[in-house]
Every structure is written in C-alpha cells, then in structure tokens.
Amino acid sequence: xxxxxxxxxxxxxxxxxxxxxxxxxxxxxxxxxxxxxxxxxxxxxxxxxxxxxxxxxxxxxxxxxxxxxxxxxxxxxxxxxxxxxxxxxxxxxxxxxxxxxxxxxxxxxxxxxxxxxxxxxxxxxxxxxxxxxxxxxxxxxxxxxxxxxxxxxxxxxxxxxxxxxxxxxxxxxxxxxxxxxxxxxxxxxxxxxxxxxxxxxxxxxxxxxxxxxxxxxxxxxxxxxxxxxxxxxxx
Amino acid sequence: xxxxxxxxxxxxxxxxxxxxxxxxxxxxxxxxxxxxxxxxxxxxxxxxxxxxxxxxxxxxxxxxxxxxxxxxxxxxxxxxxxxxxxxxxxxxxxxxxxxxxxxxxxxxxxxxxxxxxxxxxxxxxxxxxxxxxxxxxxxxxxxxxxxxxxxxxxxxxxxxxxxxxxxxxxxxxxxxxxxxxxxxxxxxxxxxxxxxxxxxxxxxxxxxxxxxxxxxxxxxxxxxxxxxxxxxxxxxxxxxxxxxxxxxxxxxxxxxxxxxxxxxxxxxxxxxxxxxxxxxxxxxxxxxxxxxxxxxxxxxxxxxxxxxxxxxxxxxxxxxxxxxxxxxxxxxxxxxxxxxxxxxxxxxxxxxxxxxxxxxxxxxxxxxxxxxxxxxxxxxxxxxxxxxxxxxxxxxx
Lengths: 235, 397
Description:
The complex is a heterodimer of chains A (235) and B (397).
Chain A: E1 6-15, E2 22-32, E3 37-41, H1 48-55, E4 63-68, E5 71-75, H2 83-90, E6 91-94, H3 106-116, H4 121-134, H5 150-162, E7 168-172, H6 180-197, E8 200-204, E9 216-221, E10 224-229
Parallel strand pairs in A: 3-8, 3-9, 6-7, 7-8
Antiparallel strand pairs in A: 1-2, 1-4, 4-5, 9-10
Helix pairs in contact in A: 3-4, 3-5, 5-6
Chain B: H1 4-11, H2 13-51, E1 55-58, E2 72-73, H3 76-81, E3 86-101, E4 104-113, E5 124-127, E6 136-140, E7 150-153, E8 156-164, E9 175-179, H4 180-188, H5 192-204, H6 216-225, E10 229-230, E11 232-237, H7 243-253, E12 257-260, H8 261-272, H9 274-304, H10 307-315, H11 320-349, H12 361-378, H13 380-388
Parallel strand pairs in B: 4-9, 6-8
Antiparallel strand pairs in B: 1-11, 1-12, 2-10, 3-4, 3-11, 5-8, 6-9, 7-8
Helix pairs in contact in B: 1-2, 1-11, 2-8, 2-9, 2-11, 5-6, 9-11, 9-12, 9-13, 11-12, 11-13
C-alpha cells in the first residue's frame, strides 16, 4: 500500500432535512499514515460516533472526500459499490466491548473474516494463529470467548480486526472497560500491530490513561476536527 | 466456510435439545393422532377382510350392519344362495355391548356366526375353533380374556375356547365370536320379566285372544319370543364373478341392500369415521400451528439474544443471506431434533393406546416434510428481525 493509510478532506454529514436538519459533521479533515496510531477525542455529541460510522462505511456522508490507501472510496458519493466487501477487506473494527462471536472458538472468531472473503479454511486458520501468536494469546487458540479474560478477549478482537490485512483499523473506545495496566497494554499492542502490519489505526477514546500515548491527536468539537501533537509517551 | 448455525447449536446444545424435546413431544402427539386415524382405517379394513365376504346383504335403505342398525330375516340367506353367482351365504349378527372381565367392564362387539362360513373368526393364535352349538366363544386377545375363562353375555355364560388377534370392530372394540343362535338370543330375546309382561299384554288384547280361535294366542306369543332376525347376510361370490353383477339382482328382486367390498369400505371409511377423521384433522392443524408458534417464538427469541453479534457479523462483512441461512438452518435443526424425538416417543407410547395406532413410514416422511416447511416459515420472523439489524449499532453509541 502506498500513500496515506486514510485521508479525509472536508467530510460532512447532515441528518434530516430543512428546519430539522442537524449537521453532525461540518468539516472533518484527517490523515493517518500506514503504521501510525492517532487518537480521536472529543466530548459527547461532538460527532465522534458519526465520524466513525462514516469511516466504517456504515452510514453515508453528505459530502467530502475519503481515500483509503490509494483508492478513493468517497467523493461526494460512494465510489465503491460493495460497501460490505469494503468493510470486510479494507477496514478493521475494534469495539468498546470485544463482541466476539460466542459460539466460535478464538481461532474461528478470527478466521471467520478471511473465510467470508472466500479464502481457504486452512489459510484463514493459519492467519488466525499467526495473529494470535503475535498478540501473545496463541495458547488460547482453542478456547471459547467466555473462557478468556477481558484483556485476552480484547486482544482476540484486535486480531480479528487485522485478519484481512486492512489498511485501516477503527478502534472505538477499546480500553474503556479495562484497568490502567491492561488499557496501556492494548495501546502497546495496537502500536506494535500498526507497525508490524503497516496499518493506520484511529483510536476513538475518552480514556485519560491512554491519551498521552498518542503522537498525534485529532480533537473533534461541534463536528469539526482540529489536529494537535500529542505527548507520544512510551508505553 | 464455518457452519455458523451448527456451531451455535453445538454451543447452546442444551437449549436446543430441551426445546427440541418439547417440540418433539408435540410432534409425537401429532404423529400419534395421524396414527389413530390410520388405525381406524386399518381396523375398518381388517374388519372387512376378516369377514371373508364379497357382499354384505342388509336391510333395504340402511347402511348396515356396521354403520346403521340392520335387521333381515334369518331365512333370507336361502333365497340368496339360489341367486346366480353366489357361492356361499351366511347369517351374521353384530352386537356392541359391555361385558364383565374380572373387575372391569370391557366394551366388545359380539359376533354371531355360522361355522366355516363367511363371518367366522379368522386365524386363531391359541385354542381351537368352536365345536359346540352353544356356550363356547372365540375372543380377540384385546378383550383380556384367556382360554378357559367364562364370559357372561346377557343371560348365558360362554367358555373361551380360542383366541384371535386384530379382530376388532370399526370402532376398535375387540370381538367375541359366539354361535349364531346364541347371538340371536342375546341380541333379540327379551328378559323373562319382559316376556311375561308381553304375554300378559297380548292375552289382554281381545283382538289377539279370541275365544273362538283356539291356538291363536299361543302362536302370537311364540312369535314374540322367537328370534328370527339377523343383522346381515355375508355372501361370497363364485370365482371369477363380478360382485357388483351379483349384487344387482339381490337389490332388485329381494328388496334388500347389497354392498360390495368397495362400497362397504366407502361406508366405513368415508362415512362412519369421517367425523373422527375431520376431528383428527382439526387437531393436526392446531398442533401444526402450535408447533410453528413454538419454533417461531424460540428462534425469534434466540435471534433477539444475538442482535449484537448479528450487528458485528454484518459490520465485518457477513452477507445477509449467510445470516438468514444461519437462522433458517437453526430452525430446521430444531425441527429435525423435534422430529427424531417425536418419532421415537410416538413409537414408544403407541402400544399403550387403547385403540390401534398405526404409524406408517409414509406419514412420518410427510410429517418431516411438513415440519421442515413449518420451521422454514416460522423462521421468517426471526430472519426479518436479523436482516433489519443495522450494522451501525455495533459502532459507537
């Protein structure tokens, strides 16, 4: 992948029409390079979730421009017909709770994504094991999600997000339910994975514990983003 | 590709198995209801087969002897024997009554027959045929009587000398075969008090007790107490003869009703048990609706319990048809568990039913097909709910 992991210019999102219209995103500009982890922070109602949904191709922006890798995916309208395949192959998701599929074991939770992309079962499971090893949970490959600790579940969720080698991972408050030590461990893993797999990672967070770890932070307020340098504290 | 439905069933197998068992018992009841109907039809056919008759000659304008009361004179058979194409003709009587068996009453059909003639009991599973003219009986094993036991029928006692199997009336009541003359008495002869009362009434009637006509009163009284009626004459036609062709002149010249085997089967199946069949059909429809409601409710509830997982699956790119397929397969899986449980349970409890329950493999196959359709239809609600899940609900607030 060349160029930017993800580049967003002038992104806007309006809900409703006429007098009842609400501009959730007014002017969002953002660039995240491959291998970089940036923070996206802002108060409640600032537009974080709306932005995440636009980036995740689950709702359509009203206007603007989005590029994923070298591919323009949105330019005042979707440039990709199959958004489902876009989400599956090119965007990884990490949620506040791990939301692992409870009836699949750890390996298959991860391998499901490559399988959905019609990869052979063996290749999918090999990829899952490689990620589990990389995230130090290889020994739990055959366990069911309910048998894992919260930290292990979140690592498996990160592995699932990376299963199809997406250029961008969107992490929605991934450390919210974790204590300081585990929260920092998750950020450490995200940084390592971003570098290892050349993935751009956007972490939406309120978590004061992890905000100092970002080198770059995007603040979002009233639907507008402002970039600032972060402390970039080592974790 | 992973079978999501299979994995989910394995993961929550307890829920599936217990629900499947509950559904299976309902399906078992459905299969049994169908078996009860089949048993009734089979009983009717066995009744006709065991009689060994090609024609049933009964009272004119009746559907006798099984569906309606029929009474014909017991000398009619001689006239029928003289009709072209008739090989054998024999009188029979049928009387449904309660008999005492040990400490309980048993509902039976008492059959009066002539030895080695149409209407005689078929294969014996124990004992011997009736060899005496009176007071011996051959009984179906379902009556509960054993060889050598005595049965009281009206005023007489009979010794059980033979046992048969599957000799039942169209209503499923086991048969007791006794000699024709005894059966005529049992059916038509009044008790002593009634006879004495009837004699007094006749003697008091000046029209029947004329002083100038000696012997008239005695003749009338004798005719009142004699039993000269039977319910039907069973006819066997000569080899190669068309039963309908033999029946036509009997109807025309003897002023009697004559039914062929096909017509009698039509009476028994289409008329006599038609109401029961409709009743059972209603039960089957209700059970099918209840089964569908249970499957729909369970699958819908289980789907609602997985809304977040479904949202995540959709978000990460799972096709809608994969999710719909998962729910459909679970519904079908539930139906399959239910069918297996239902088939086993119906086979286990069918022998304990008081009436013959005939479980046909073809009915089981039809039930399975119907169940799969019901489960597929029942999953629609859950599939709709799953397809409406917005993948955006997995992201953010």
